[in-house]
Amino acid sequence: KYTFLRLDPAWRRRAPAEREAGKRRLVEVLESPPEGLLVRTYSLTGLKANAEILVWTIGPRLEALQEFHARLFGTPLGGYLETTYAYLGMARRSEYLGDHAHGGEGSSSRRRPFDRPYLFVYPFVKKREWYGLPFEERRRIMGEHFRIGHQYPNVQIHTGYSFGIDDMEFVLAFETDAPAEFLDLV
Questions:
Q1: 2-87, superfamily in CATH?
Q2: In the UniProt record, does the keyword Iron occur (predicted)?
Q3: Residue of 25, 49, 64, 110 with fewest CB within 10 Å of its CB?
């Protein structure tokens, strides 16, 4: 799950000691997620008008995600956080891969981030025309897509399938050490 959070400006007007204590409590929650849940955070300060923090949570149980977010919003600082976007997706192997080994994409055994400093999140829905193409044509197109992606080994992709569990059909996340490498890929 990718949760984009906006910090209410009123938080910045709180007393410094209160802000410091609130940050410490928030960090405690971020660093002690429920069992089986991985958490990564990214600062968006100065980059997005409607979000300062991105929280990426990875785990096999929706209940753990809910428990974590309830604890997060239950902190003193959490009361000043507003979710501006949230994207839920589940990992699975692409139907277009065939026998191709694709670096753990969608693998049930690989649910860990690569710990790169940048994460770009891209939710999308494929158009009806895409599904009107014969499966083998779609597989050929996706094979070319995968081939191009392999030319950028420093950009790692995480594909989340969302159809029926969220508003989007897919949510992609790209980890990289350098934003320019991601732009070169897309």
A1: Apc35880; domain 1 (3.30.70.1030)
A2: yes
A3: 49
